[in-house]
């Protein structure tokens, strides 16, 4: 009877995962913390699972989606900014000269973000993101970005919620950018999305209470900023964390250092054919120290090529 | 039949509220937004209600509870700080000279907060707050502070949750201070508490991942900071807001300026006998502009003396 029910679990749970060690680690962890009477039992209120976004829940190559948005917005806004023809980093963006953009460094990036992400109301920015997201397509896969989420990870999100977990996204990306689609695509409501934020100014604009996005960073939710944001917003230590890059190491450390059963998972991009293969030297989603530390820390490293039957939803394989 | 069911509602819902206009406003609002087919229907996911804490959910006189904690902690820590005998504002605190403390202004307050709220790990601070909260007593009511919450507001929290609302606390007070008791007293889990925050530093202390509370303010969640925090953390505009002071005006404006049915409520402390009576000139919870603006904005002003049958839980009246 035990083997029959295990076989049923194996096929009905996480169907896009191969029956390899990675899937077993996730399913075993959930069983341990949800089974009443288990020494590792965790009450539902404390079942918090956190997920990085770029490269963990959706693709991040050849460039973070929010960076694609930013560059395309510069092109869209250029007619209103004739000065950009000569002003860096705008000149390089408009000329398609990515090396020129890179040469402007962090100051350049800050200018691009300020020009595209600030100075408008929160609702106007939301509308701009929504409009872009509904039209933009990835050139390689010829799909909208919200269709380039990882089917196996959608199943993990749903599986954990079905087992009483609250699933939070904890991303270095802008929080509003993710909130645009997180509820309909991931089943994660806006209040469960934590990300980098701009400062807001509250004032009346045309008699209407308005939050205006300022060109000042409120919070950078990456690296050591992730455990800090988790503590600020959630106020509990998660018991499971999923990431894909060295920017997730502190979140994984913080999550798995707590008492009781803990789950740390790193998605390793090993599949150049179905998606991308990259790790130690990648500009986006660099995974170097995390790969070295995973064995000693007990973090599960998911080998995308070996462990996932499919990558994207409804993809012809 | 309608009158019978209305009578049942009147006695079974919000039992510590008198059957006055204030209660009717709350019950009518909830009915409008929850009734399927109503033009004001709001899906459960968007039913967000926000509550100020001090003076809205528990008492704040003669001093904010967190201020009482701060001053008592200075006394407890004084033996380890002989320099405080001569250094302001510590000298005045130890001498019980509140005018002397007040004379040190914001700089003095910052020093008191730094000495009592920062420099330790988040878990050590949590333990200190928890220990204090379990022992501290209000001198007038001879009760712990967690027994000095408002019974009618506990009923509102529960009533709104029973009607599919998510109830968030949005307080100018320190977020960890409220999280210590919010779940067991209010039924509000830590992740639904928004408050003022200190910056955290992530590092390994004795080989253990640790968040240390720094003497730098991360966020001041008061006045215009309230709508900004709501947008940062929740990412949706609430449809109901409860406050008690001018520090809640922006949160009330932001909430009630949205489309559809909206509820804004101000708790007016009018009951010197059972609690306190204060408004326009109070040092804690000053309510001046809010009283003036409430009628034009359609905000419900709760008259504690007239509208509440009881103030504290299980109180002998
Ligand atoms: Ca990532
Ligand atoms: Ca208050």
TrEMBL record, chains A, B:
<comment type="pathway">
    <text>Amino-acid biosynthesis; L-serine biosynthesis; L-serine from 3-phospho-D-glycerate: step 3/3.</text>
</comment>
<keyword id="KW-0460">Magnesium</keyword>
<dbReference type="GO" id="GO:0005737">
    <property type="term" value="C:cytoplasm"/>
</dbReference>
<dbReference type="GO" id="GO:0000287">
    <property type="term" value="F:magnesium ion binding"/>
</dbReference>
<keyword id="KW-0028">Amino-acid biosynthesis</keyword>
<keyword id="KW-0718">Serine biosynthesis</keyword>
<dbReference type="InterPro" id="IPR050582">
    <property type="entry name" value="HAD-like_SerB"/>
</dbReference>
<dbReference type="GO" id="GO:0036424">
    <property type="term" value="F:L-phosphoserine phosphatase activity"/>
</dbReference>
<dbReference type="Pfam" id="PF12710">
    <property type="entry name" value="HAD"/>
</dbReference>
<dbReference type="InterPro" id="IPR036412">
    <property type="entry name" value="HAD-like_sf"/>
</dbReference>
<dbReference type="InterPro" id="IPR023214">
    <property type="entry name" value="HAD_sf"/>
</dbReference>
<protein>
    <recommendedName>
        <fullName>phosphoserine phosphatase</fullName>
        <ecNumber>3.1.3.3</ecNumber>
    </recommendedName>
</protein>
<dbReference type="GO" id="GO:0006564">
    <property type="term" value="P:L-serine biosynthetic process"/>
</dbReference>
<keyword id="KW-0378">Hydrolase</keyword>
<keyword id="KW-0479">Metal-binding</keyword>
